[in-house]
Amino acid sequence: MEQRYATSPEQITGATTQELRDRFLVQDLFVPGEVNVTYTHHDRVVLGGAVPGDAPLALPTYDEIRSEYFLEHREVGIVNVGGAGTVTTDGEVHELPKGACLYVGRGVREVVFANAGSGDEGPAAFYLFSAPAHTAYPTVLTLPGQGTVRELGDQVTSNRRSLNQYIHENGVKSCQIVMGVTSLHPGSMWNTMPAHTHDRRTECYLYFDVPADARVVHLCGRPTETRHLVVADREAVISPSWSVHSGVGTAAYSFVWAMAGENQSFDDMDGFPVTTMR
User: Fold this and answer.
1) 213 CB neighbour count, 10 Å cutoff
2) For residue 168, is it within any domain?
3) Hey, is 157 helix, strand or coil?
4) Dihedral, CA atoms, 111, 266, 100, 87, nearest 10 degrees?
5) 198 is in an annotated binding site
6) 94 in a labelled binding site
7) Could you tell me if residue 2 is inside a domain?
8) How far apart are the C-alpha atoms of 128 and 89, rounded to whole Å?
9) Distance CA 44, CA 47 (A)
10) How many separate domains does the chain show?
């Protein structure tokens, strides 16, 4: 388990490109035959990736979280960004096509990832977003299109997108996770504009379906002193509560957004018009 310690805005004023990437960009989550996780001390979120091969993969526990099993004191949202797969929770099998989301509550002892497709679509690739949990909620599978869908943006401003809310206060119940998937329409590249912060939550973006020859320029930092990260396919960005999060790609793409912190109100954000940003 890689650890990333919490940061303040003052710490990135003079940061180099590599220092910014080391603090906020999470790479190499999706390695065939492995489960890889990164622990950020911002709201004690754990990001992970699991890519099963011929054999299933079990979610291990880690000394850093001081638990008998991974979900003893945690909950997790799982989104499949690869081919068809299954997630088995304490013996119950859940089938996840690409884009499906599985919420697994506190107290589930065993989580096992496996492939379920023909192989033509590639292996399953499960993205994990976990946060501490104070109680247990039921495990719930949501298939693509079954969540609360919001159509946002405009083609004129190159940010037409479909936002699918899965885990949220009016959807799948959780202790503190809010999670969903946004897909940009063809010809659109901006994912969030105007940019905003959540002073009460940490948010992470996992970019996927980014073409191999494309990149996303992700804006971060304070609104009056922005920085940027150049992000490739299946790489994640940690956004502390004080940091804006917005991005533009060289082609259309999708991303998993997930938050944890003080509340679960999706619209609890502080927006910053682009004319006020620097």
Assistant:
1) 7
2) yes
3) helix
4) 0
5) yes
6) no
7) no
8) 14
9) 10
10) 1
- Residue 145, both tokens: 């299109």
For residue 54, the 8-state DSSP code is S
Structural domain span for residue 175: 12-133+145-276
Distance CA 262, CA 41 (A): 15
Q: What is the pLDDT of residues 203-230, one digit of tens each?
A: 999 999 999 999 999 999 999 999 999 9
245 is in an annotated binding site: yes
Dihedral angle, C-alpha 181, 151, 261, 3, nearest 10 °: 30
Asked if residue 4 belongs to a domain, the reply is no
For residue 145, name the pLDDT band (cuts at 50, 70, 90). confident
pTM of the complete model: 0.94
Helix segments in the chain, DSSP class H: 17-24
DSSP line for 228-261: EEEE-TTEEEEE-TTS--EEEESS--EEEEEEEE
Provide the CATH number for the domain around residue 70.
Answer: 2.60.120.10
Q: How far apart are CA 1 and CA 81, in angstroms?
A: 21
68 domain-assigned: yes
